[in-house]
Write a structure and sequence with these properties.
Blueprint: H1 3-26, E1 38-44, H2 66-74, E2 76-78, E3 81-82, H3 88-97, H4 101-104, H5 125-131, E4 135-141, E5 159-163, H6 189-194, E6 201-206, H7 227-251, E7 255-261, H8 282-285, H9 298-301, E8 305-308, E9 317-319, E10 323-324, H10 328-336, H11 352-357, E11 365-369, E12 380-385, E13 388-394, E14 408-417, H12 433-454
Parallel strand pairs: 1-6, 1-7, 2-9, 3-10, 4-5, 4-6
Antiparallel strand pairs: 2-8, 7-8, 11-12, 12-13, 13-14
């Protein structure tokens, strides 16, 4: 489906869905303060930290994200927020389960012909909230399995409209798409009946932007400013603005909007990739290869993030708390007053105090797994501890121009101080006391987590086998190609 057509369907469905869910809630009057909050998670694809205008230095360049900038001004900008992984499927699986890929089994991307997906032994955020009385809907890119029981409506979502994987996979990357046009998918009876229930809702919007191929509309304003990527970024920002406006018009005092990204920009795509801002990974780029998506350099996983909830999240605030997409799961469950299953271990923290009370109590440490270019899939190859970051494995994804840096092992680890070296250019001298202290603490945390995972009885294993018969598109005989069967 063409990008602009998909966006129109998405926006129309979204606006109707929000109104259906909030009309009866607004009629509750004095009960507003006791109602459980609505949640809107907006996940951009392959977006750079520097793409957000609010993250740019004054005079750096013109902002293409006025709606997101306004949302940051009216809410909280999270400057040290990280995707759980540096590629699509592992990042999304971790967000929805609150568990690292080495626990939930998703350590690299699923393919067009994947027979499996997010292991069925895993429980998603949508499933838990649904069981807790929430109405759950998803719009956009899934990429956690599309065959049989792995689709969104089998994983806790009451409603789904979207694409099964990235927009450059399957038939979508072939010219002359010749299947009959897919009719609009309007909200079904289940959404209409829900109006009377007055349920709180979870809406998960997983955008195709800013993943290639980019297809900005011909009517995009200022076509000469920044080329195709900038026009597509403006289109994405406009969509976020439409979501925010719909929420504001219906139930803004009771709705948390959380915008973030699944990983950094795809540097290999040159002018069609976003900006990492100051997080250039210079140590790696000086040796060849890229240092964004598919790597554990900052550009691969530090993503632009904004939290917005009028009257609850302090306006015009900025937090440098160390947070991750893993933290969305426990935070939303805490705010909803719903407990996760007690038969498994989790990796995120409840960030409520950061969002609502301005505290800087983020994660004491973060682990960045490999999910792309170097090392074994899922390896916890990089550890963040406070302002320091330790690399046990370095490697590079393909850069614009085709160069690829070789994988290197580091024992003892290579450690950077991000407080004065955002570009990760010069590692600490291993003979200094600062290095020795950080090295010792990092080793303790890394060994503790690896032991915890090794003894975790709830670890899942994903099936990465492929079979062309599992591919959902390019054959009109496959009913999954018709959008009205996906919901």
């Amino acid at each position: 489906m063409a990008g602009s057509v998909f966006l129109l369907l998405l926006a129309g469905t979204l606006l109707c869905g929000l109104l259906f869910h909030t009309v009866s809630q607004n009629e509750a009057g004095d009960r507003t303060r006791t109602r459980r909050p609505n949640f809107i998670i907006i996940l951009a694809d392959d977006i750079g930290w520097g793409d957000l205008g609010a993250n740019q230095q004054a005079g750096q360049r013109s902002s293409q994200t006025p709606h997101l900038d306004l949302m940051a001004q009216q809410g909280m900008r999270l400057t040290d927020f990280h995707s759980p992984a540096s590629t699509c499927s592992p990042s999304r699986a971790a967000l929805l389960t609150g568990r690292h890929g080495l626990r939930n089994g998703v350590t690299h991307n699923f393919a067009v012909g994947s027979v499996g997906g997010l292991p069925l032994s895993e429980t998603t955020l949508a499933e838990i909230l649904h069981q807790g009385g929430y109405y759950t809907a998803m719009i956009g890119k899934w990429h956690l399995g599309h065959n049989g029981p792995y689709s969104p409506t089998k994983r806790g979502f009451d409603y789904y409209l979207g694409i099964p994987y990235s927009n450059d996979m399957g038939c979508t990357d072939l010219p002359g798409y010749d299947l009959p046009s897919c009719p609009p998918c309007y909200p079904g009876p289940q959404i209409l009946h829900n109006r009377e229930r007055g349920q709180p809702f979870l809406l998960y919007v997983a955008l195709a932007h800013m993943h290639v191929p980019l297809s900005p509309p011909s009517y995009a304003p200022h076509p000469s400013e920044g080329g195709v990527y900038a026009a597509s970024l403006r289109e994405m920002d406009g969509l976020v603005g439409a979501i925010k406006n719909a929420s504001d018009a219906s139930d803004k005092e009771n709705t948390l909007i959380w915008f973030t990204g699944d990983n950094g920009p795809w540097e290999q795509k040159c002018q069609y990739a976003g900006s990492v801002g100051p997080f250039l990974g210079k140590w790696q780029t000086s040796r060849g290869g890229g240092s964004a998506k598919r790597t554990t350099w900052e550009g691969g996983h530090r993503v632009p993030t904004v939290s917005y909830w009028p009257g609850r999240v302090p306006a015009n605030s900025t937090s440098s708390a160390l947070l991750s997409g893993l933290d969305i799961f426990p935070t939303l469950l805490s705010l909803a007053g719903v407990n996760p299953p007690s038969d498994r271990r989790y990796d995120g923290i409840d960030a409520t105090d950061v969002l609502l009370h301005g505290k800087e109590t983020g994660n004491e440490f973060l682990f960045h797994p490999n999910s792309g270019a170097a090392g074994k899939y899922g390896d916890l190859q990089t550890v963040r501890l406070g302002r320091h970051k330790a690399f046990y494995i370095t490697g590079a994804a393909e850069a614009c121009g085709g160069s690829t840096g070789r994988q290197e092992l580091h024992d003892p680890p290579m450690i950077f101080d991000l407080s004065g070296d955002k570009g990760e250019e010069t590692p600490l001298d291993p003979t200094t006391e600062e290095y020795k202290e950080v090295d010792e603490r990092v080793r303790r945390w890394r060994e503790a987590l690896l032991y915890d995972i090794a003894t975790d009885q709830s670890v899942s294993t994903a099936d990465y086998a492929t079979d062309q018969s599992a591919a959902p598109c390019c054959d009109p005989r496959h009913t999954a190609c018709r959008c009205h069967t996906l919901g």
